[in-house]
Amino acid sequence: MTRTPDIAHAEFADRRRRAVAAASARGLDALLICSRGGGTVDRFANAVYLANFYTSFPYISDLAPDWTARAHTFLILPVGRDPRLIADVPYISEVALPGPSIVQADDVLAALIAELQSLGLSRARIGFVGEDIMPWSAMRQVQAALPDIGWEKADDILAELRAVKSPAEIGLLREASRIGSRMIEAMLDEARPGATHGDIVAAGQQVLTRAGGILYNSFMASGTGGENPTVYRCNFPTWGNPHKLAEGEWLRLGISGLYRGYYFDLSRSKSIGRPSNHQVDAFEAAISVVQEGLATIRVGATAGEVADRAFAKQEKLGYPIQGVFSGMGHGIGLGWDSPWLVRGEKYVLKPGMVLNVERTLQRDGYLGDFEETVLLTENGTELLTDARMRNW
Questions:
Q1: Pair 123, 176 in one domain
Q2: 153 C-beta neighbours (distance < 10 Å), count
Q3: What phi and psi values does residue 248 have, to the nearest 5 degrees?
Q4: In this predicted structure, what is the pLDDT of residue 3?
Q5: Domain range for 262
Q6: pLDDT of 2
Q7: Region 183-194: what's the mean pLDDT?
């Protein structure tokens, strides 16, 4: 996940510089960034974004002094001093920091406390990034050891920096979307009478793993509509339902995964066998709603405008506003990035943002699902996902 040869070390250094400048503008003495790895996909983004480091070690309960906070990474960005990365694994050859700035330790919390002290931050005002990542038990240990630090929330600093992508990041996102598009096409090709959800995911994994990608999730369901609708799905894993597809059913696939840490996210629908008019209505409605949102994306528009236009289209088509996700989309990068495309959101869209517009529609037991990824430029938008739109 940390293999990013297309991003120069100078770009990582510039990201850190901009993060420190934002912290200094708030009167903070430093930022402390917490990320978490674990071998597949977790809350790794900020450590990869700032230092190109990912820990593959899984989370295990603390057993001090032998180890603490395994699977967690801490990056200290002091104002006016060199950074410190506290890593729990020795695999640091690809880290975009000089060797003296990297501390490797099994007892991660002890190392973190020692580095904060050595940097003169025992009485500092520190912006904390990763409040949803660091365990409360770990934070209590740090606070007990360094009670005079004043902590302030600072997640928004990294969220704002990550919202606009560099040319190198755009290149990786373009390739991620290409791989995701080929993956979902392989899954759709496998979707025929007699196939299970697991068979479909296995076909997609053949494409993804050979391309060096990682599956984050595959939201999927199949079923029938009408007077006695049925839905076949599973929560854990999402492809675990043993039902075999049958002629006349609908299928929706929503997949997300990563290539070198950068995400792809897209969805498609398909009829199993000959499509019915009700199925096609749902499939086409999902496409129409997403395309309405895509047509609204432009420099200077707000995230809320995109959501408003798309939701208005959905209501006009007669599909109720319901589902597991109440937004119309989001930014994408090393995770789900700002902005969120929700009603009332005033976030202004800027060139260099990569955005997803998505919608799952349901009516009378029929379901349509569609999602695309676009790059916003000064001249308009560029579609990054290129999977077949219509599979019926």
A1: no
A2: 10
A3: 95, -5
A4: 56
A5: 167-383
A6: 52
A7: 98
Question: What tokens appear for 124 in the block?
Answer: 């500092």
Q: Does the pLDDT value for residue 5 go beyond 90?
A: no
116 and 151 together in one domain: yes
- What pLDDT sits at residue 244? 98
291-310 CB burial, b ≥16 within 10 A, e <16: bbbbebbebeebbbbbbbbb
Give the span between the Cα atoms of 358 and 371, in whole angstroms: 4
Nearest C-alpha neighbor of 362 from the set 392, 307, 317: 317
Q: Is residue 330 part of a domain?
A: yes
How confident is the model over 34-70, as pLDDT tens digits?
999 998 899 999 999 999 999 999 999 999 999 999 9
How is the chain split among helix, strand and coil, in percent rounded to 5?
35, 30, 40
Closest CA to 88 of 118, 56, 113, 62: 56
- Among 162, 191, 206, residue at a domain's last position: 162
């180890």: which residue's tokens? 67
Residues 213 and 343 in one domain: yes
Q: What is the 3-state secondary structure (H, E, C) of 306-369?
A: HHHHHHHHHHHCCCCCCCCCCCCEEEECCCEEEEECCCCCCCECCCCCEEEEEEEEEECCEEEE
Query: What does the pLDDT average to over 178-190?
Result: 98
- State pTM to two decimals: 0.95
Cα separation, 311 vs 158, in Å, equals 29
Q: Are residues 178 and 321 in the same domain?
A: yes
pLDDT at 4 over 60: no
Indicate the pairing of strand 30-36 with strand 84-87: unpaired
Write the CATH number for 152. Answer: 3.40.350.10
266 lies in some domain = yes
Tell me the CA end-to-end span of the chain in Å, nearest whole number. Answer: 36
Confidence grade of residue 6 (pLDDT, cut at 50, 70, 90): confident
Both 199 and 145 in one domain: the answer is: no
